[in-house]
Amino acid sequence: MLQGFYRPRTVAEAATLLAGDPDAKPIAGGATLVAMLNARVIEPAALVSLAAIDEIKGISVMADGRLRIGAFTRHSETAECTLPMGASAVVRHAASEIANATVRNMGTIGGSIAFADPALDYPPALVAAGAEIEIASTQGTRHVAAAEFFLDWYVTALEPGELVTAVLLPAPPDASGRGVYIKHARVAGDYATASVAACLHADGTLRVAVGACGPVPITDDTANALLSGDRSDATIRRAGELLVQHADPLDDVRGSADFRRQLIPRLLLRAVRSVEVPAGGRS
Predict the structure, then answer these.
(1) Three-state secondary structure of the chain
(2) Contact assessment for residue 189 and residue 43, using Cβ atoms and an 8 Å cutoff
(3) Average pLDDT, stretch 92-99?
(4) Do the Cβ atoms of 90 and 167 come closer than 8 Å?
(5) Res 44 pLDDT > 60
(6) Which CATH fold would you assign to the domain 178-276?
(7) What is the b/e burial string over 115-124, where b = at least 16 CB atoms within 10 angstroms of the residue's CB?
């Protein structure tokens, strides 16, 4: 039974509350956590609301040019961000694909990635973008690369008493970098059956990550190197084969494991061809 509900006003206060009660859970937008509470999947002793902490809200440009997306930033805010993003625009594109307008207006980027469902839209986009996750505790702040943050099915690098405070995106060197997010879903707004995030940088290097086809986003250095040097159909097929070798998908209502493996090279081709074409709008 829920025994307490706290509403701290600073990250330090929230971290102290979480450290003092190992059975407490932070709650941001509540898009996922409330559903889990209603289904009795989790039964925390207390909830620590992050809604009153201004320092983890909004999107800003840091002194070194990186973009900082506060953990309590709503999906809709990320999707509608007008700041130049270059290749990191893949994260904005992923945000725009999340569920529906109601969920995008309620859910937050911090809550989403802390839940770490492999079928969510942010994980592959963050890995492809080379993002870092900012994590706070009573011991201070640390940063973890997105590729090292997602560890297993619904498991992250978060330790007890820690909370996500921001996502840090690399500074766009110029407007020519581009990022796209392509997903296959049963219906619009559903979780991905499979997805591919692609980031093309100003120097021609290309980095891709596959979502919903294993416990964590799939990326491969050799595939990225191939795609950075040559993007012929044959090379894309070879890169797709390498990514499929890393896949460990499940059979579920959204598709069989075999179907997901078949989707990877097809979505990769679409993503690479899409990211090569200037959008004609925001970067």
Answers:
(1) CCCEEECCCCHHHHHHHHHHCCCEEEECCCCCHHHHHHCCCCCCCEEEECCCCHHHCCEEECCCCCEEEECCCEHHHHHCCCCCCHHHHHHHHHHHCCCCHHHHHHCEHHHHHHHCCCCCCHHHHHHHHCCEEEEEECCEEEEEEHHHHEEECCEECCCCCCEEEEEEECCCCCCCCEEEEEEECCCCCCCCCEEEEEEECCCCCEEEEEECCCCCCECCHHHHHHHHHCCCHHHHHHHHHHHHHHCCCCCECCECHHHHHHHHHHHHHHHHHHHHCCCCCCC
(2) no
(3) 97
(4) no
(5) yes
(6) Enolase-like; domain 1 (3.30.390)
(7) bbbbbbbbbb
CB-based contact 6:48 (threshold 8 Å): yes
Residues 6+ apart with CB under 8 A from 193: 119, 183, 184, 185, 186, 212, 254, 255, 259, 260, 263
CATH topology for the 1-50 domain: 3.30.43
* The pLDDT of residue 215 is above 70: yes
Domains in the chain: boundaries:
1-50, 178-276
Average pLDDT across the chain, whole number: 93
Q: Express each pLDDT in 184-214 by its tens digit.
A: 999 999 999 999 999 999 899 999 999 999 9
* Residue 112 reports pLDDT greater than 70: yes
pLDDT score of 155: 96
One-letter amino acid for residue 181 of the chain: Y
